[in-house]
Specification:
Helix content: over 70%
Strand content: under 5%
Oligomer: single chain
Structural class: mainly alpha
Shape: globular
C-alpha cells in the first residue's frame, strides 16, 4: 500500500519528481501541438493565421504530424548512453534544450521545411525523455512510494495535452509557440537545482555525494543512508557493463522483451496518437454540431481526470485486469465510432447522433488511461532485471515511436482509401488481439518480488 505519510515527509523527493516531470509536460504539449495547429494550417479562409501564406497539403499535414516520431526513434539510444556517461540529471537538462530550440523555430517559421525540422528535433528530445525520466524517478524514489512517483509521468504528460487543447485554438500560432517554448525553459531553471540520481553517483564512485543526496531525499540518518547505499551498490554492479545482447541470453529476458514490445505495440496500434495528434480534425470530420475545439477540451479534461485514477487502483486490482478492461473498453469505443464515420461518409443524416463521437472518444480516453496508457511502461520496469533495464527501455521506446510514425504518417492516406471508419475498425481489431495476448501471455506482477516474477517468466 502507498504510504501517504511517507510522501508528505519527502519534500525534496516530491520537488525533484515534480521538477523532472515538467519535461514530460512540455513533451505532452509538443505531442498534442498538432491538434490546434493543423486546422489553422489547413484552413483556406484564414491564411492570416497561417505563416506559410497558403493551406498545407494533406501530404504535408501527415509529415508534420508524424516526423516527431522519427526523432523519437533515435532519441532513446542517444539519451541512454548520455545518462550513463554524464548522469540522469544533466541528460534531462540537456533534453530541454532541443524543445526550446524547436518551439523557437516554430515561432518564426515561414517555410514548411522548418516545420519538419522543428518536429524532428523535438522528437529527439521527447524520445530521450521517455527513456531517461522513468529511470531518474525510480532511482530517486524509495521502494514504498516508487509506484506512485513513477505513474506521475502519465499525469504530467496528459496535462501537457490538455494545456495545448485549451490554449492553442484561442491564441495566434506565434503566441502559442512562445507559450510552449517557456515551459522547457521553466523546466531547466527549476530542475537544475534538484539532486542527481544516487544510483549514478554510486556508479561513478562518488560515495560521499551519494550519501548526502540520500540523506536529503529520504530525510534519514547516516546509518540508514549507508545501508541503502550498500543495496544500491549491489544493483549497480549488476548493471555495469551490460550490453544489448544480454537481453537475449536468458529465457526470462526474451519472454519479458516479447511481452514489453507487444504491450507497447498494442498501445500504439489502438490509435492513441492519431486521437492525440489529430483531435480537432477528427471532430471536424464527424460533422457534429459540437465545436471541434470544445470537443478536444472535453477529451483532454477527461484524460487528465482518468490519469489520476490509475495510481490509486493499480496495486489493488492488478496489472492484468486493468489491461484487459482497457483493451476491451477501447474495442467497445472504436467499433461504434468507426460505424459513425462509415455512415457519415455514406451520406447518412446523423444529426441526432451528434453526441456519439464525443462519447466514444471520452470513453476511449478514459479506459486507455486506466491501463494501456501507463501500464506498458510500468510492467517494463518490473519484468526486466537491472542489468538489461536500460537496454529494454531504449528498445521499447524506439519501437513505440517507430509504430507511432507509421500510424500517424499513413493514417490520412489509408483513411482516404478505406474511410475513417475502416481505420478505426482496424484499431479495434488490434484491441481484440491485445485481449487474447493478455489472457495467455501477460503475467500478473502485483505484489510479487523480482524473483517471483522471473520464476513466472521462466515457465
Amino acid at each position: 500500500m502507498i504510504s501517504f505519510e511517507v510522501v508528505a515527509k519527502r519534500k525534496l523527493l516530491i520537488a525533484a519528481v515534480f521538477a523532472a516531470n515538467i519535461s514530460i509536460f512540455s513533451a505532452g504539449m509538443m505531442e498534442s501541438w498538432t491538434s490546434p495547429v493543423l486546422p489553422k494550417l489547413l484552413n483556406h479562409n484564414f491564411t492570416d493565421e497561417n505563416p506559410l501564406g497558403r493551406p498545407i497539403t494533406n501530404d504535408e499535414e501527415s509529415w508534420i504530424g508524424s516526423l516527431i516520431s522519427i526523432g523519437a526513434i533515435v532519441g532513446p539510444f542517444i539519451s541512454a548512453f548520455l545518462a550513463d556517461q554524464i548522469g540522469r540529471k544533466k541528460t534531462l537538462l540537456g533534453l530541454g534544450v532541443p524543445l526550446i530550440v524547436s518551439f523557437s523555430i516554430l515561432i518564426g517559421a515561414r517555410h514548411i521545411a522548418l516545420f519538419y525540422f522543428a518536429r524532428i528535433l523535438a522528437g529527439i528530445s521527447i524520445g530521450g525523455i521517455f527513456a531517461v525520466l522513468p529511470t531518474y524517478i525510480a532511482e530517486v524514489s524509495e521502494v514504498s512510494i516508487r509506484g506512485m512517483m513513477s505513474t506521475s509521468m502519465n499525469n504530467f504528460e496528459v496535462m501537457g495535452f490538455f494545456t495545448s487543447y485549451i490554449i492553442g485554438p484561442y491564441v495566434s500560432l506565434r503566441m502559442f509557440n512562445i507559450i510552449c517554448a517557456l515551459v522547457p525553459l521553466l523546466f531547466i531553471v527549476i530542475f537544475i537545482t534538484m539532486p542527481e540520481s544516487p544510483y549514478y553517483l554510486i556508479a561513478k564512485d562518488r560515495k560521499e555525494k551519494a550519501k548526502h543526496c540520500l540523506k536529503r531525499l529520504r530525510c534519514t540518518t547516516d546509518a540508514k543512508a549507508e545501508k541503502e547505499m550498500e543495496l544500491i551498490k549491489i544493483s549497480v554492479d549488476k548493471y555495469l557493463g551490460s550490453k544489448y545482447v544480454d537481453i537475449l541470453k536468458t529465457r526470462s529476458n526474451v519472454k519479458a522483451l516479447i511481452i514489453s514490445l507487444s504491450l507497447i505495440s498494442f498501445q500504439q496500434l489502438s490509435g492513441v496518437n492519431v486521437i492525440t495528434f489529430y483531435t480537432q480534425i477528427l471532430f471536424e470530420a464527424t460533422g457534429s454540431s459540437i465545436r471541434p475545439d470544445l470537443s478536444a477540451i472535453i477529451i483532454g479534461g477527461v484524460q487528465v481526470i482518468a490519469a489520476f485514477v490509475t495510481p490509486l487502483v493499480v496495486d489493488k486490482l492488478g496489472r492484468r485486469i486493468l489491461l484487459l478492461i482497457s483493451a476491451a473498453g477501447m474495442l467497445l469505443a472504436e467499433v461504434p465510432l468507426g460505424l459513425y464515420y462509415y455512415l457519415h461518409d455514406e451520406g447518412t443524416d446523423l444529426k441526432s447522433l451528434y453526441w456519439l463521437p464525443v462519447s466514444c472518444l471520452v470513453f476511449y480516453i478514459t479506459v486507455f488511461n486506466f491501463g494501456f496508457g501507463p501500464l506498458p511502461w510500468t510492467m517494463m520496469s518490473e519484468l526486466f532485471p537491472d542489468n538489461v533495464k536500460a537496454v529494454a527501455t531504449s528498445l521499447t521506446t524506439s519501437v513505440c515511436w517507430l509504430l507511432s510514425f507509421v500510424i500517424t504518417k499513413y493514417f490520412e492516406s489509408i483513411s482516404v482509401q478505406i474511410g475513417m471508419g475502416g481505420s478505426f475498425w482496424i484499431f479495434s481489431g488490434f484491441n481484440f488481439i491485445a485481449i487474447i495476448f493478455i489472457i495467455f501471455w501477460v503475467p500478473e506482477t502485483k505484489g510479487k518480488t523480482f524473483e517471483e516474477i522471473q520464476e513466472d517468466l521462466r515457465r
